[in-house]
UniProtKB/TrEMBL annotation:
Keywords: Membrane, Signal, Transmembrane, Transmembrane helix. Residues 133-205 form the C19orf38 Ig domain. PANTHER family: PROTEIN HIDE1. The keyword Transmembrane applies. It comes from the Eukaryota. This is C19orf38 Ig domain-containing protein. Residues 1-24 form the signal peptide. It comes from Ameiurus melas (Black bullhead). The chain crosses the membrane at residues 233-257.
Length: 324
């Protein structure tokens, strides 16, 4: 009897071990390990992304997202993937909604609540009005926001002010309080539900000198913001163009003056030549062509023995009227 009991007990132990290894292994193969459902950044403020991540060494082709036990979204791939992303719109989702997922025929993941992404508010604009007044303008979508004024490079608040319920602009008076010619920035905050949302800081603005203040008596060079060292390309191009135009005007002017001087010199030379020839032609040139007898050494009666002119008057190249 004891021997039969021993065999019966051994059979029960072996059967239990067989069922635990074989049947359990088959169950694990038919129902793989559950995935993990996590929320990742979507890059947009109106939606979130839930990622269904299979365990290491596992993959699937069909991924399903459930709202409690109701199928919400399903993604099917041509090849096996280790994860799938599901994008949800937070404007239609409820804060108390819970989600789970699975891949192929795996077990369900643990439930996950949605966490709304932080709202990104548009950056405000800071401008200056007369007498050192700084105006900070926020988004028209959020009237009645709380505005804060900062000095650039400092995290301490200089002033805070809440806009009226229907306004999205406030005015700060910075002149005479924190020093002039300083750079300022502003920021606005709104209460969304139970959390505060803060905008980015505005672009820094330089508080200009107010007329009549002591700082206005400084040199004119101090009234301008410091140079950043950048080159103003349009200004350089305009200066070069003006210089080239001025050089061309000088060249044309020099050419005109040279041509005028050359023409005047030619006219003067021609006038001098005309005057010279007029003087030459106006002179009375007389050539003495008197004919004289030649003495032969014999003295004859009635014949002159000396040189005597044949004619009483020399021959002139220019005839003169009688009685002149």
């Amino acid at each position: 009897m004891s021997l039969c009991g021993f065999f019966f007990t051994s059979l029960l132990i072996f059967s239990a071990h067989f069922l635990q290894t074989c049947a359990g292994g088959a169950w694990d193969q038919e129902n793989p390990s559950p995935p993990q459902l996590v929320q990742v950044s979507s890059g947009v403020s109106s939606g979130v992304v839930l990622r269904c991540q299979a365990p290491q060494g596992h993959s699937g082709r069909v991924f399903e997202l459930y709202l409690v036990r109701t199928l919400k979204l399903s993604v099917q791939f041509d090849t096996e993937r280790s994860y799938a992303d599901f994008q949800l719109n937070t404007s239609t989702a409820k804060p108390d909604d819970i989600y789970c997922c699975r891949y192929d025929h795996s077990r369900y993941s643990m439930y996950t609540n949605l966490t709304p992404p932080p709202l990104e508010l548009p950056a405000p604009q800071l401008s200056q009005r007369a007498e050192g007044a700084l105006v900070c303008t926020g988004s028209p979508s959020y009237p009645g926001a709380h505005f804060s004024l900062f000095q650039q490079g400092s995290s301490s608040l200089l002033a805070t002010q809440q806009a009226p319920k229907i306004e999205h602009t406030v005015q700060f008076t910075a002149s005479g309080q924190h020093g002039e010619r300083s750079r300022y920035q502003c920021q606005y905050s709104v209460l969304l539900g139970e959390n505060w949302a803060h905008s980015e800081l505005s672009s820094p603005i330089l508080l200009q000198c107010v007329t009549g203040s002591p700082s206005c008596s400084s040199s004119s060079a101090d009234n301008h913001p410091p140079s950043t060292g950048s080159v103003d390309l349009p200004l350089v191009c305009g200066s070069v163009s003006a210089a080239l135009l001025f050089l061309m005007v000088l060249i044309v002017l020099a050419y005109g003056i040279r041509k005028y001087a050359k023409t005047a010199a030619n006219k003067r030379r021609q006038r001098e030549q005309e005057q010279f020839w007029q003087q030459v032609h106006s002179r009375d040139h007389i050539v003495d062509l008197t004919l004289q007898r030649v003495s032969t050494g014999f003295k004859e009666e009635g014949v002159a023995s000396v040189w005597e002119p044949i004619y009483e008057s020399p021959i002139s190249t220019f005839t003169r009227p009688p009685g002149y």
